[in-house]
Description:
By secondary structure, the chain is an alpha/beta fold. It has a domain at about 35-295: tm_1862 like domain (pyruvate-formate lyase- activating enzyme). The protein has helices at about 5-15, 45, 85-100, 130-140, 160-170, 185-190, 195-210, 225-240, 255-260, 270-285, 350-360, 375-385, 390-400, 405, 410-415, 430-435, 435-475, and strands spanning about 55-60, 65, 80, 115-120, 150-155, 175-180, 210-220, 245-250, 285-290, 295, 320-325, 330, 340-345, 365-370, 390, 420, 425-430. The protein has a nine-stranded mixed sheet. A three-stranded antiparallel sheet has the order 12-13-14. A three-stranded antiparallel sheet has the order 15-17-16. Helix 3 packs parallel to helix 4, helix 8 (about 225-240) runs parallel beside helix 10 and helix 12 packs antiparallel against helix 17. The chain starts with 6 loop residues before the first helix and ends with a helix.
Amino acid sequence: MPNLNSVPAARRYLETNLHQRQVNKVLHSFPSPRFWKDRERGPLDVRPPGTDAPSCELYVALPFCLVTQPSHCGYCLFPTEGYQNQDQLEVYLNALEREGEQYRERWQALEPRSIFIGGGTPNLLKVHQYPRLLNMIYGLLPSLPPGTPVTLEGIPQLFSRDKLLAMKDHGVTRISMGAQQLDAGLSRLSGRMQQPKHVFQAVEWAAELGLGCNVDLIYGWPQQTPAHMRRDLQDLMASGVQHITHYELNVGGATDFALNHRDELPSPELVREMYFGAAELLAQGGYAQLTPSDFQKVEPGAAPGFVYEECRRSFDAHDVWAWGYAAISDFPNHHHSQEAGGWTFMNQRNLPGYYGLLNDGKIPVECGYARSPADLRLSLLFRNLQSLSVDTASYRHNFERDVLEEFSPIWQACAELGLLHISPEAIRLTPEGAYRVPLIQTALMQGRVEEITEAHFAQLRAAAGRVDAGRGAAP
């Protein structure tokens, strides 16, 4: 693993990777879940009453997706379960209710800033199931302020006007639609059966009902050209949709795209061209860039509201309570705490495991990780980089250290390569730096990943030594 403790070393590392395909290695913040090994604790253990961060969000997970050929839409790396029949939904809602009851007393005073219902594909639910799900959520949050943003995600062809009306009538304020491609031929590579008309019809219904709306598109798709991308964006902007998430395909794991379509992927140079072409096109269409991937339509005279996809712009402590299959909770310690950096947890990633722990009356946590202060700083730094700038004063206030000094060689190397501008008040990404956020994040985490990896293998060696010693002592 490279040592990036000098500007020349950091610059060499960055320059070496500038021409490689980007891989987002921090989907679950920092560090990777492969290091999450704690099996003894859970959210209620590390966040007892009276220890809440100043703000929080709630994530509610539904695991099911339509079965596709190739599986997982060809590219998805998130844990999901194949949808077979409506009985699965009822069984899962029953389990979700049992998990929620374990939080009831703890959440009496909780006031989430936002609620996101994700998955999976939550709009697989039938019309009559949305009142049950949403009443379940609101029933556990008696202190929830009226008008709290509630987003529900899904796929285009499963949104109907009746479903959207049921969502709105029971508190959903916004939908997030995973279209990924509008070109039917490109979409079929993922095994998905949607048509462009499904996307535009759902956008129209959402506007009619007064629901906010986001549409996800992916660039860097197999066989995709800049012309495909421009046509999709132009058609989507013409629909009047409020928010567009336009993100780069993450190719990895044992997915169909990684195994069978690598030779059909646009080159790294062409993918970069797509990013800048899209950013320019969206700006011309009146969309303000919030993150490397998120663009919000600027409404004249309208006050900017909270958007779930917009990343945090300070380092103040902020909790994430997660509820359901494979859901990830995050509990950073309050600022100035030097004891530890907080905790993150992942719920069970298979349904038998999830249901089994609930049947035993337990919180369905699969694994957890106790962050060190260094881990916490990196985790929050990654989220702030997504917001296109780093507030150095907020970092100093919360951690009593200077972020410019802490990662000085990497910042200087990035500045020399035109990825960012450094001032005493902020580190601001250039347009090129916004595109290179995954690379900057990977450079920043190199030293800490090496420490964690060495500690992990030291524990394995120690455990093996204890086993060998036990064998030697046996009669």
